[in-house]
Amino acid sequence: MVLTIGYLITEAETVWLHLGDGRVVEGHALGFDSVTGFGLVQALGRIDLDPLPFGSSAAASVGDRVVVGGAGGRTRSVASRSPPGRSSRLLEYLLDEAIFTYPAHPNFGGAGLISAGGELIGVGSLQLEREREGKAEHVNMIVPIDLLKPVIRGFAQIRPRQQTRASWLGMFSTEIDNRVV
To answer: pLDDT tens-digit profile of 128-163?
Structure first.
């Protein structure tokens, strides 16, 4: 099973897992949790990878050294830190808490946030721009792994998805004078 971010697989008809050694394995989108944004994919072939142990996102602190590991393995990972700032409830999942990392990883969707101890503490969802010291700064928003524990049982009950189509509304928003517009 591969944990990812749900919007990558929401309406996927085919899923391909690209491994760091260049192999490609077909996968099956099992489902996603619309509250947290997590998605789950079943590999349909051998991937021969050791899973990352789950850490605790609650134990992460602002300024911790972390790695945002996207597709491509170590050579395409970004050493980051969690910058000062507040988490937000706006975004697409209505999260009470989110983790933000800087610098931003360009391939953030589904990227793993890995602690200095080598544990998975979140999954990448968005890239946002904010102002810091008068300059634009790109950060990644990460869904904390602690949110997975309450919904993991629901993933175990997922059946192959039925052919339904969801409607999505794309929207760009920004914060001006402490208001989202």
So the answer is: 887 888 888 888 889 999 999 888 877 755 554 444
Which is it for strands 38-43 and 99-101: parallel, antiparallel or unpaired?
A: unpaired
Query: Which residues contact residue 75 at a Cβ distance below 8 angstroms, ignoring those fewer than 6 apart?
Result: none
DSSP state of 120: E
This prediction has a pTM of 0.78
Distance, in Å, from the CA atom of 124 to the CA atom of 4, rounded to the nearest integer, reads: 8
- Under 8 Å between Cβ of 101 and 81: yes
User: Which pLDDT belongs to residue 120?
Assistant: 94
Residues contacting 70, CB < 8 A, separation 6+: 76, 77, 78, 105, 106, 107, 108, 110, 111, 124
